[in-house]
Amino acid sequence: MTASNSSENSSVDIESDRGDHGHFKKWEKLQCNELYQIFTIQGRRAEKVLWAVAVLSAIFIMAEFAGGYFASSLAIMTDAGHMLSDLLSFIISIVAIRSARQPPSKRLSWGYERAEVLGAMVSVIILWVLTTILVLLAIERIINNRLSVEANVMLITASVGVGFNVIMGIVLHFGSGGHGHTHGGVNHSRSHGKNVNVRAAFIHVIGDLIQSIGVLIASVVIKTTGWEMADPICTFIFSIIVLFTTMTVLRDIFFVLMEATPRHLDFNAVRNDLTELEHVQSVHDLHLWSLNMDKTALSVHLALDSSEHAWSTVEAARMLIRQKYGISKATVQVESYDKSMNSCEQCMN
């Protein structure tokens, strides 16, 4: 096995240092097998839970659109549109979980890791289109003074909506199972805990619950006071909430597609930890990027004081990256250190 030496256009023989650290390969293989089994079991459990809430969402969305139509309530329609977006998110999450189990191909060397990101972007676009249409309808109703709302139908629909969201929240919270602990020095809290797609779905449902409570309050106001302006006002308020919540999602999508350093990682901390490894004189071409919303990849060049320690340094770096930062997809390249690297802009970046 060799490692590229960019400063001398040659290769460094690291076979001589492999014998003393052969245990790492066995450890890494066991860790990879264990993680694969964990993610597979966790993914299948999460998929079943997401299917359950997707079916519940689909049933209620049809009921809510019908209720909004018969009640002439745009607030209910807005809530239904938001839930439709969430249903798309649930389906996207299911597709993402299944896609993650598909092996990479020659064409897609990373597999389908970013299917979730692209799907989330489509979901946000659909939600924005629906919200825009409902806001325009609300403005039109105010201008033409067409504010008549069937308060009783609106009240019943909103009450059922609160109930459905509570049930979905319970299914997501207790149905996915999982717990956090560590094995063999590797932090598996994220692996044994709730699936990231289930966590995201739970947050969506909490948002829907708050929105349904808002519709319920508006329906009570209309029924008790007759102030039907509460319906379009509720639509405007929900539209603003949708705008702000989806902006954060779009920001995350933007940074993933731009291959930015994930927010939960400190670039300088990773660089400093690698620099402090024994025999490492310089660290350059360090890249940290997200494959999707929950998986990170890393590549780095390490300049060493001696080629004799190349293999042990690679193993130490990979173990550090995996254990401390939870990054399993890492490429570490070693090369001989040269004093010219201290004045090379490319090497210092």
Description:
By secondary structure, the protein is mainly α. It has two domains: 35-257, Up-down Bundle (Alpha-lytic protease prodomain-like), CATH 1.20.1510; 264-348, Alpha-Beta Plaits. 64% of the residues lie in helices and 11% in strands. It contains ten helices and seven strands. It has helices spanning 22-71, 74-100, 115-143, 151-175, 189-192, 196-225, 230-257, 267-275, 310-325, 345-348; strands spanning 2-5, 10-13, 182-183, 186-187, 280-290, 296-304, 329-336. The strands form three sheets. A three-stranded mixed sheet has the order 5-6-7. Strands 1-2 form a two-stranded antiparallel sheet. Strands 3-4 form a two-stranded antiparallel sheet. β3 (182-183) and β4 (186-187) form a beta hairpin. The protein is elongated, with a radius of gyration of 26 Å. The two termini are 27 Å apart.
Keywords, separated by commas or semicolons:
single chain, about 350 residues, mainly alpha, Alpha-lytic protease prodomain-like, Alpha-Beta Plaits, 2 domains, 3-stranded mixed β-sheet, two-stranded antiparallel ribbon, 7 strands, about 10% strand, disordered N terminus, transmembrane helix
